[in-house]
Task: inverse folding
């Protein structure tokens, strides 16, 4: 299990239009927001990434870089980028599922075609959103077993303002006896 204030796993994937993404090379003042999404087959992911694309600039003005990553192929990642009409969001692709598991993401098996008629991959990861501090320690994380009921990025931006104004520490770091 990932723990706040502890180092996250390394993460390196290719992106569509922004070269390679390597978490160890990220240099944003307050860290990196990583949005793991299910893949092109997921209509909820398309809506979610549209919201992230609209809010990415707000994260960046607060010193947080943004990347969306899936285990999709380059072709399917490009199809998602085109579907949401994103021109700025970094899309990482080819996430190995063993690395997805290292990040605590759940893995699902295909159920065939989705409600929009797109075939699911044989295996894919479920969603997760992480804010990783510049020292590569976990600040915030949420993982899900389902595509539904995800944190809203507008709420996240508001929370980030509070965090910055109050120098609020990462929470959930205690792992001793209870």
Result:
């Amino acid at each position: 299990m990932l723990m706040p204030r502890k180092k996250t796993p390394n993460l390196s994937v290719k992106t569509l239009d922004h070269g390679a993404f390597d978490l160890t090379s990220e240099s944003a003042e307050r860290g990196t927001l990583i949005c793991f999404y299910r893949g092109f087959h997921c209509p909820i992911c398309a809506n979610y990434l549209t919201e992230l694309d609209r809010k990415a600039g707000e994260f960046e003005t607060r010193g947080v870089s943004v990347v969306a990553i899936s285990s999709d192929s380059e072709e399917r990642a490009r199809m998602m980028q085109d579907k949401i009409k994103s021109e700025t969001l970094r899309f990482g692709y080819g996430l190995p599922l063993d690395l997805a598991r290292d990040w605590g993401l759940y893995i699902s098996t295909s159920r065939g075609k989705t409600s929009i008629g797109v075939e699911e991959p044989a295996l894919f990861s479920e969603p997760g959103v992480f804010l990783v501090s510049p020292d590569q320690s976990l600040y915030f994380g949420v993982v899900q077993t389902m595509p539904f009921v995800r944190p809203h990025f507008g709420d996240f931006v508001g929370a980030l303002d509070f965090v910055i104004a109050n120098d609020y520490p990462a929470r959930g770091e205690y792992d001793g006896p209870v």
About this structure: The CA atoms of residues 4 and 138 lie 5 Å apart. The chain has four helices and nine strands.
